[in-house]
């Protein structure tokens, strides 16, 4: 979808595709995206890939992502909210790989469940969220099945990273909650 100003996608199942939903466009004053009650199954590249130039609010809720290489990637949305979603990741094939990628703006994740896949390729430092943006994660559960990994990879000194009220099942010291790769402006971990 190119340049959608008010986009609503709901009650769809996407399976065995390259990228299920790809949205992009220029600055959309008061632009709005809602993706609700959808399933993304075995997407070889992205479940949802969004590139908008600021002034955009994206809400993804009540969705299920099962073995997608990158369930969600967002670039430059002022605010991307992901809530009440279920994630079971695809096998990681690259070092420093992440399931959810956020560049610019703010990513908020609330009340989601993350189920890891075994790291059978022994890739270096996989994590759930690559944060090259402000990232706030609240009331979510990061499972320890098949091993665990960090919740956020902090990628820039320009952004803040917050984890609050989350459950993180870790199996070793290297699977910390926040992995600092590029620096950070501030990290807050509370009530976890």
How would the blueprint of this fold be written?
Blueprint: E1 6-10, E2 13-15, E3 19-25, E4 31-36, E5 39-41, E6 46-52, E7 56-61, E8 64-66, E9 70-75, E10 79-83, E11 86-88, E12 98-110, E13 113-115, E14 127-138, E15 141-142, E16 152-155, E17 160-164, E18 167-168, E19 178-183, E20 186-190
Descriptive report:
The chain is an all-beta fold. The protein contains no helices and 20 strands. It has strands at residues 6-10, 13-15, 19-25, 31-36, 39-41, 46-52, 56-61, 64-66, 70-75, 79-83, 86-88, 98-110, 113-115, 127-138, 141-142, 152-155, 160-164, 167-168, 178-183, 186-190. It is globular and about 40 Å long.
Question: Which key phrases capture this entry?
Answer:
0% helix; seven-stranded parallel sheet; 55% strand; 192 residues; 13-stranded parallel sheet; 20 strands; mainly beta; globular; single chain
Q: What proportion strand?
A: over 45%
Helices and strands, in N-to-C order? EEEEEEEEEEEEEEEEEEEE
Mean pLDDT, to the nearest integer, reads 84
Shape: globular
Q: Low-confidence spans: pLDDT under 50, at least 5 residues? A: none
Number of helices: 0
Distance between the termini: 38 Å
Largest sheet, strands/sense/barrel: 13 strands, parallel
- Secondary structure class reads mainly beta
Annotation, overall tally of beta strands? 20
Based on CA atoms alone, the radius of gyration comes out at 15 Å
| Percent helix range | under 10%
């Amino acid at each position: 979808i190119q340049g959608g100003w008010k986009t609503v996608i709901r009650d769809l199942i996407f399976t065995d595709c390259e990228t299920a939903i790809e949205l992009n466009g220029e600055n959309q004053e008061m632009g709005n995206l809602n993706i609700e009650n959808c399933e993304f199954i075995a997407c070889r590249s992205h479940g949802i890939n969004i590139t908008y130039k600021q002034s955009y609010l994206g809400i993804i809720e009540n969705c299920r992502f099962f073995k997608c290489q990158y369930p969600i990637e967002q670039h430059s949305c002022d605010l991307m909210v992901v809530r009440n979603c279920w994630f079971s990741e695809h096998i990681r094939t690259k070092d420093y790989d992440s399931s959810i990628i956020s560049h610019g703006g703010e990513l908020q994740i609330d009340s989601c469940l993350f189920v890891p896949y075994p790291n059978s390729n022994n890739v270096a430092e996989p994590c759930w969220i690559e944060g090259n943006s402000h990232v706030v994660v609240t009331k979510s559960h990061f499972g320890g099945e098949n091993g665990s990994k960090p919740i956020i990879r902090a990628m820039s000194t320009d952004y803040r990273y917050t984890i609050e009220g989350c459950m993180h099942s870790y199996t070793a010291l290297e699977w910390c909650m926040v992995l600092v790769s590029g620096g950070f402006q501030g990290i807050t971990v509370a009530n976890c």
